[in-house]
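Please go through the sequence and fold tokens given here and tell me how the chain folds. Record follows.
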Amino acid sequence: MEITRTLGRSGIEVSAVGFGCWAIGGEWQDADGQPLGWGKVDDEESVRAVHRALDLGVTFFDTADTYGAGHSERVLGRALGKRRDDVVLATKWGNVFDEDTRTLTGSDHTPEYARRALTASLQRLGTDRIDLYQLHLSDLDPALAVELRDLCEELVNEGLIRAYAWSTDDPVRAAVFAQGEHCTAVQYALNVLQDAPEMLSLCEELDLAGINRSPLAMGLLAGKRQGPKDAGDIRSKPPAWLQGFGDGAAADPEWLARIDALKEILTSSGRTLAQGALAWIWARSPKTIPIPGFRSVAQAEQNAGAMEKGPLTAEQLTEIDSLLER
């Protein structure tokens, strides 16, 4: 049972699972040396994984210019190659980085920078347009975002982008962008352990697609019981906003206990734990499009394979809420 989703008001149809391309960017860092990637990657394996995803019906790929300081876009562009027109391509802007040193150096919310960033992303991705262009500054002052929303409308009219969105967990900010005619989505965190009822309601009310990052809780819902040993992995030195991991990258025991309590439901009908986590998101709302990360062909196969099983049932959702006491 392969399922699809509509990308909000745009009417663009995409696979029900998208692929998040943060991890394939490889190692990068902030100015203080804090790792921001998921550790070392094999670019050739990343390319093979994208090809496998395409063959399994995945048509939505989400990246950002800053992932790997431009490297994710370059790898994704190379992997898509002549199949670019077979997919819906999303990227993000707003962060400033040094591609040579793979370092995040700051941010820039000006319209002038947005245009420069778009030009650079188009070049790295090897394409002439972005299907979904997303503001990557989650806490930007909404008053400043109005100017960027208006710029995005200009970019649509110029044929450089097809639609746009804001990557933010704040429904008030998302609603500001949603006032634009061609705003069609909002990207926010959602997984079975971190529900987002306000964002789900906003998407339903304004006919926006919800692009769901962290659908597998940074790997915990894929069965990762231990933190990574790779010093270049953000989870090895988790920043304050990264929930589920504690000191020394150890997984939070409370999170693991909740996952254990849900495991029987999530692995129903022959699903893996990760597939069950994606199935919960689909059952939560028809507006959802989870974007799990991947670094290997095996992960690509597992994530894409979730579409064959479809969403959980309403009864299973109710049972999960009962187990989590919410």
About this structure: The mean pLDDT is 95. The chain has one domain: 4-323. The radius of gyration is 18 Å. The first helix runs from residue 43 to 55.
